# Entry
Amino acid sequence: MVAICGRLPPGTENIARRLHEPTEEFIHVLSGELFVGLSNGEYNLCSEDKIYFEGEQLQKMKCASQTQDVVWILVITPAVF
# Structure
């Protein structure tokens, strides 16, 4: 497992890149609001919200906060980085 801390300022987003191995992923939002676009739906997560998904479902993440950075922890298994 690998844990990664992510941060995006308002108005920015990340487009997901395909990984070489199938993964399971878990996001825990620490502060702000995070939009998560999966192949099976779209989710707005607030501080302390969590989401679990198969890695190939992730399409994009963006800061949904208007005035503050969104900060989250992503845990991914297996360690593919």
